[in-house]
Amino acid sequence: MTASPQTSSPALAAQQRERTRGLVVVLAAVLAYVLLHSGFRMLASGVLGEDDTLEQILVQELRLGYEARQPPLYDWVLYAVQQVTGPRLVSFLAIKYAALTGTAVLLYLAAFRILGDRLWAALTVESLALIYQISWRYHEGFTHEVLAMVAVAATLWAFLRLYDRGRWRDYLLFGVIAGLGFNTEPNYTVYQMCLWGAAAMQPAIRARTVRRRLLLSAAVALVLASPYLSWLLSDPAHWNEIFTPSRRGFALDRAIGVKDAVRGPLMYLLPLVAILPAIFPGFLRTAWDDVRALFARGDGAIAYEPARPDFERLVLGTMVLGVGFSIAGGLLFGIGGYAMHVLMPLYVTSVIWLIAVARRSPRGGARQMVFARVALAIAVLALVVRLANMFVYDPVCSKCRWGIPYAGLAQALRQHGATDDAVFVAVDDELAGNLRPHFPRASFVLLGPRHFVPRGLDPARRDVIVVWDESAKATRPLADTLAAVLGRAPQLEAGLTMRVPWHHMWRATGYRSSEWKMLKVDAR
Length: 524
Description:
Structural class: mainly alpha
C-alpha cells in the first residue's frame, strides 16, 4: 500500500485538474441517479417509508432530544425543512438524497487523495451501488443513518486535510464536522474512535495530526454536542434508557452482540465483497496480505515503512477497529440484535480500501471496466425492480407499502367528522405518520412502545379522533393506554369501520382493500 507523495506545483496543478474532472463526472452521475429515484418515488406515491413515519410524529415540535438512544440532528434538520415544505414526502427525500450526494462527493475526494487516480476514485463511489443496504434499502427507509453516513465521509475528508495542511481553520472544520456527527448516530462516535485509533498505529500520521490545535476541534465539537448532552443528562430516565438490558438475559445479550459485531461488516458490505473477488483475480490474497500487514512490526515480506503515511492502511484500520469496538460493546453492554443498516455509517468508508485492494490485485487495471459495467447493470436492475415495486404492487410485492390508500382513509375520516384542528390518537406510527400530511394542522399522539405526546396538549378543548386497525386493537391494550390521554378509556367496540379500496394499474379498483376503525370523542 502506498501514500500520495509530495508533488511539485505543476504536478499538483495537474493532479487538481484530474480530481476536478473526475468530480464533475461523479457529481453528474450521482445527480442523475438521485433525480431518477426521487422523481419516480414522488410520482409513485406520497406514502412515507419505514422509518420516516415515526420521525413525522416526533418533529411536530422542536426539542433538544427525542430518544435517548438516537441523537437528534436528523429531527432538527427535518423540522427545519418541514417549515418550508410541510409534513410531506418531499421533506424526507430532500434530506435523504442531499445526504447521498454529499456522501458521494466527499467519498470521491477522500478516495482520490488516497488512491491518486480519478477513475479508481470514481469506481469507489460506484461501488456503493453494489451494497444492498445502499442500492435498495436506502431508498426504502433510513433516517438518522443518512446524516451519519455523510458525517463519516466528511470526517475522513477533513482528517486528510489535517494531515496535508493542518491549519487552524482545518482543525476548526474538523471540530464542526465532529460535533455535528456526534448528533447523528452513536456509530459516528465509534467511527471517530476507530479513526484516531488507526492513526495512532502509524507514527507518520500521528505526528502530523495529533497537535495542540486538536484541542480546538474538541472544544468546538463539545459546544455543538452540548444541547443534546444537556438533555441526555437532564433526566436519569434518559441515561437509563440507553443501558436498559433486553429481556433476553445477560448471557444471550452478549452472545448476540458479539455475533452481530463479527458478521456486521460482511453483512453490510454484501454483495460487494462477493462481487470483487469474482471480478478481480487475486483479490482475497491481496486483502489478506493487507490485514497481516496491519499488525506487522516492520519485518518480513509484508512490512511497511513506518516513516511513510499509508492511508489505505488507515482505512483498513478503522474497519478492523470498528469490529473490535463492536465486539467490546457487545461484551460490555450487550449491544446487539440491531438491523445491519445501523452499521452503514461505521463501514461506509471501507469501500476505499476494498477498491484499493482491487487496484493492487494482479489484474486490477485490466478489470476496471468490467467492474464499472457490473455496477452500472446492477444499479439499473435495482431501479427497474423498484419501479415495479412502486407502480405495479401485486404480484411484485406483498405488503406493497406504497399502495396503502392513506389518502382515501383521510377522505373517509373527514366525511365522518375529522377536522384539521383535531387530536389524532394512534398506536401505529406508520398509520399516524401517513395521516399527518393530510391533516398538517392537527396534533398527533402516538401510544405504545414509541410513546409521544405533544407538549401543552389539552384534549378537553379539541375533538379527539382515535384511529386504528383491527390488528392493532388485538395486539395492544389500546383502550387502556387511551386513558392516559383522555382521562378515561372509551368503548372501542363503538368505533366506526372504514373500508378503503386500493387502486391498481390494470386491476379493478377495490381488488384489495384496507380496513380501519375510528372513534370520535367529543371531549369539549
